[in-house]
């Protein structure tokens, strides 16, 4: 029987590469069926149409309600909004859900996928950052199966295979350094959208590429690792590795280090999550060992160069609702930067101010409803902070 999949965010970088993997696996005798697809809206339709023609899904979710009626004829069920994502995730026909939507919008879909005993392959960092305790509470209590898609956490999963957590001395998450890794802090503040989106190693979506340049993504990944592997923050760090060949490595109490290495190709961790614990030949050609002659590893620079990384660590250590607030503020700030409303150097200013305002409202053990409500409030406050930044810089009147 075919393993039926729902791919939430099918036209994004992870979604399209997931379809590459499925195409490859099915070509070599495996039976994965794309049962349903989800996209944001009208801007995705050009990429969505050929996906429907090729994979013939039975169901489709269009997140933006106003765009749902404008999609060309689809011979299947169309769902709308967050409720549509949730319905796809808990559909009894589905065996696995790939969560690759951008941002905290994937939280409820992940929860419902786990509650209905699906394999949830998660690429959306913000889900575990904002609601890690709730998500892992489900996964660790026999509700479904949670497998990471991002390269760093796939690497950690492989490095920890068969090892006891008590033996871990340190988990080292590698970072390319992003598009601005060789820039001075002063120059970085004035980086343009075009500068930031020129990632030297990875093919990723715009939001995560900005997070790579601010190093926010490494802070988010440390929070994710803390939840996924039940490891305290003091046992997780990030190091700069410009070649992006070592994806993460684990240092054990006896001095041994186990690393997972491979080319900078997201299709490798995607395939591993879909086929786990089995391994199959991949799309990636054989490794050129000339690329492995030397590896460079450098410690993470300080707050002056990457303030967002340290704000994420602060939020993770505070816990409760603070990671959700930090994440919401960052999402709003990144999109404001991508839309040229604020400068690159304003992103950490927005995040810091929203986090500071939330401290007196912190909830240490929030429910899912409280997280979702605070997420909305944090976004609204971040928008207000951005307005005042614009006003101060350009004299905009409200």
Please tag this protein with its features.
Rossmann fold, 398 residues, alpha/beta, seven-stranded parallel beta sheet, Rna Polymerase Sigma Factor, Chain: A, five-stranded mixed beta sheet, 3 domains
Walk me through what this model shows:
This protein is of the alpha/beta class and about 400 residues long. The protein folds into 3 domains: about 5-150, Rossmann fold (3-Layer(aba) Sandwich), CATH 3.40.50.720; about 155-265 and about 290-320, no CATH class; about 320-398, Rna Polymerase Sigma Factor, Chain: A (Orthogonal Bundle). It is built from 16 helices and 12 strands. The strands form 2 sheets. A 7-stranded parallel sheet has the order 4-3-2-1-5-6-7, with helices on both faces. Helix 6 links the parallel strand 6 (about 120) and strand 7 (about 145-150). Helix 14 packs across helix 16. The protein is globular and about 50 Å long. The relative contact order is 0.11. The mean pLDDT is about 90.
């Amino acid at each position: 029987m075919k393993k039926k999949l729902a791919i939430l965010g099918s036209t994004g970088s992870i979604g399209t590469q997931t379809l590459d993997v499925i195409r490859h696996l099915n070509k070599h005798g495996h039976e994965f069926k794309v049962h349903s697809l989800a996209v944001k809206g009208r801007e995705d339709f050009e990429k969505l149409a050929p996906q429907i023609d090729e994979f013939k899904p039975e169901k489709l979710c269009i997140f933006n309600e106003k765009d749902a009626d404008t999609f060309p004829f689809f011979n299947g069920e169309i769902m709308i909004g967050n409720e549509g994502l949730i319905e796809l995730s808990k559909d009894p026909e589905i065996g696995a859900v790939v969560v690759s939507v951008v941002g905290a919008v994937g939280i409820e879909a992940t929860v419902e996928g786990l509650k209905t005993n699906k394999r949830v392959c998660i690429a959306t960092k913000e889900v575990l950052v904002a609601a890690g305790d709730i998500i892992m509470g489900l996964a660790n209590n026999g509700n479904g199966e949670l497998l990471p898609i991002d390269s760093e956490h796939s690497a950690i999963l492989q490095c920890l295979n068969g090892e006891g957590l008590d033996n871990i001395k340190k988990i080292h998450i590698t970072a390319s350094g992003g598009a601005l890794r060789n820039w001075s802090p002063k120059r970085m503040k004035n980086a343009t959208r075009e500068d930031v989106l020129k990632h030297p190693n990875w093919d990723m979506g715009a939001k995560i590429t900005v997070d790579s340049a601010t190093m926010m993504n490494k802070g988010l990944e440390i929070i994710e690792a803390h939840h996924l592997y039940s490891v305290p923050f003091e046992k997780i760090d990030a190091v700069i590795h410009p070649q992006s060949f070592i994806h993460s490595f684990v240092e054990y109490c006896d001095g041994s280090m186990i690393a997972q290495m491979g080319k900078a190709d997201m299709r490798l961790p995607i395939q591993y999550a879909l086929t786990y614990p089995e391994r199959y030949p991949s799309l990636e050609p054989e490794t050129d060992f000339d690329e492995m002659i030397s590896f460079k590893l450098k410690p993470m620079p300080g707050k002056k160069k990457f303030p967002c990384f340290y704000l994420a660590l602060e939020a993770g250590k505070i816990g409760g609702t603070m990671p959700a607030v930090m994440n919401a503020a960052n999402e709003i700030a990144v999109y404001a930067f991508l839309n040229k409303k604020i400068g690159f150097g304003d992103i950490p200013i927005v995040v810091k101010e929203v986090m500071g305002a939330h401290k007196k409202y912190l909830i240490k053990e929030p429910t899912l409803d409280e997280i979702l409500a605070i997420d909305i409030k944090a976004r609204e406050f971040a928008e207000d902070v951005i307005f005042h930044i614009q006003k101060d810089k350009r004299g905009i009147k409200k």
